[in-house]
Structure formats: C-alpha cells, structure tokens
Amino acid sequence: MSDGRNGPEAAASDKESRAAQGTLIERAGEGIDELPMDHGLRAWLQVLGSWVLFANTWYVEIFLMMLIGVCAGWLIDAGYLPFILIGGTFMTRLGMLLLSLCTKYWQILLAQAFCVGIGSGLLGLTSVAVIPLYFRKKRMVATGIAATGSSAAGILYPIMERRLFVSIGFPWAVRALAFLILGSLLPCAAIMRLRPNSKRRGALFELKHLRDAPYAVFCVAFALMIATVYVPFFFIEDYGLALEINSDFSFYLLSIMNAASLLGRLGSNWLADKYGGISVMLPCCFLSAITLFFFRFAHDLGGLVAVSIVYGCISGGMVSLPPATIANLTDDMSEYGTRMGMGYTIASIGALVGNPIGGAAQRPRGTTTTGSIQQEFQGAWLFAGAGMLAAVASMLVMGHLKSGLIMRDKS
Fold it and tell me: Model's pTM, two decimal places?
C-alpha cells in the first residue's frame, strides 16, 4: 500500500529510517559499557580489591615481581583477569608455605624469590592496571587509596611476624601469614572485573610503544626511581643497629617510614588529580633526593625518626603515581595493559640493581664510632640521591617532549 509520498521523498525517508536504526543499534552496543566513570559501587570495589592486592604483594622479590609485568599486562589486555587473580594467589601462597619448610638457601631462593615473586608480579600489576579502567577524573586519588594497602601491610605484617616468630616459631609464623593473606585475597577474585569491551589481544611486547618518546623517557625515569626509592627501606634498620640504637626502636623505624608513606601516597595522589601526575612527581623526586643526602647526618634516634617520617611522606607518591601516569600517557586504553606491563618490566632492571648497588656502596671503616658509621653508610645514601636526581632530569625531558608534541598537534 502506498503512503502517498513520491519516489524521492520515500527514498529520503527510508534513508533517515535506516540512519535512525543504525544509531539505535550503535547505542545498544554502547549500552554494554554504560558503567559510570569515577563513581559507582563497582568502580570503588576495584579500589578495595586493588588495596588488598597492594597489601599482599611486597618488594622483597621486587625484580621478578616487576619483570613478570609484561606477561601480566598482556593477560589483562586479553581479558584473563580471573586467571591472573587465581594464578597469582596460588603462586604466592604456595611459595610461602614452601618457605616454611625451607632449610637451605637455594630452597629459600626458589620459594620466596621465584615462586612468590612470580605470583606477586601477577597480582601487583593487576592492582594498578584495573583502576584506570573505571576512573578518569579521580584516577590518581583512587590509585593512591589502593596504594596505601602496601603501606598498611608494611606496618602490620612485620610487627605481627616478629611476635609470632617468638611465640610459635618461624615455620608456623610464615604459615599463619600465608593463610591470613589467602583469606584476604580470595574475595578479590569475586569483586574485581575488567571494564566491558576492554578486551584486546595484542603482542606481548610491542616496540611501537617505545617509539612514543614521552612514554619511553618516563620508563627510564621509572626505572631510576625504582632503583633508588627503596634504598632507605632496606638499610634504615641496619643503619640504626650500627649506630647502637636499641634493636626494638631500629626495627620500628621501617614501620614509621611505612606509616608516613601511607600519608604521602594519599596526599600526593590527591594533588595529582588537580595538577597532574608529573607536576607532583617532579617535586616529590627532587625533595626525596635532598632528603636522601640528609640521611648521612642522622646519628641518633630522634634524627632517624625525623628523617624516616620526612622521607616516607615525600617518597610515597613515587610508588603510587607511576601507574596512573602511564595511563595518562596512553591514548588507546585497550593498549594500557601492554604499556603498563612494558613499563614495569623496564623498571624491573632498576629493581634488580638498585639495592645491591646501595649495599656495595657501603664502606666499612673497621671502627664503631658514630662518625665512621655515618661514613660507612653514606655511599648508599649518595647513590640513592644521585639516582633520584637522574630520575628528575628524565622527567623534565619527558615533560619537554610531551609539551612539544601538544604544541605540534595544535599547530
């Protein structure tokens, strides 16, 4: 039956109808990913899950933890998040249970460094890779909240384990911690999800990303930061003991530094959402370098507590800001997992060499006077401070390159 329209009018009407139907189909496809950004229960559940993952992935086996990032990033891009969470949980807890049975160094190396390290690599990257899929405007602060998990664990777990070593012995103390962590990690598999339509199968390692100059230079800065930022965390207790400070107080210096780092991660990430990640990370790096040079002058309990608080607070941003910064340097978020994994793998080189160089830079003087102890450890502090300044220089170069690209695009 004719509707009374002539040929051209009918053709135009049909064309409009098909366009409308196409729009509806397109909107229906987009409806699959109607989850809001920056708010909502599901988004904040990812922060909670990431907080737990941060709390249960440590930096004892930091090289393997970061090296495995390229594989974890590819798996995230391919949509295998449940496999990562279950596999990482299994590897880390198996490694800890095996550690409780170890009696030789090579056994400890396999259980703690390799088994726990690989599992932590799977979980550690996940803890920073999922949040940017759900947050844009609040990306930095959400990552900062999640990153406080490792600071909280750095306060709680060492104190708990030290007491358990005395009361029930090393094997059962390690097993108790393994079961505690297992109980906290299992809910992550239930609440953590990739964003719909974020799956993408790409190459494990794509050299094209390294041709992105700002990203490549930031990876160098990231490696320099990782090589140096943990030097005080590794050596502050030994420094305190060498200065003949009470062993209990020396032990708690690490917990004090972790507590200050918790505040630093929240504060720096909150500022980063307002002023940008690099704009906050640059002064954090620079002030951390200055503080590292001042470690040499701390020679009593009051001085060590003060420098530990200052350093922990300032350096907190260097742990929590890089993941969100890589996200901000990524135009196509379907490639975010690969770029994150590559960044962490490159930074793992710094993790491998940083603390050993800090240890090798120490020069025993053969005497136990305060001055000789300060001179013994000053090589570690100077190395860390110089490496941190090199990271500052790298980020300045990255900022210049990024500004040049923006100006070129505008012109």
Answer: 0.78
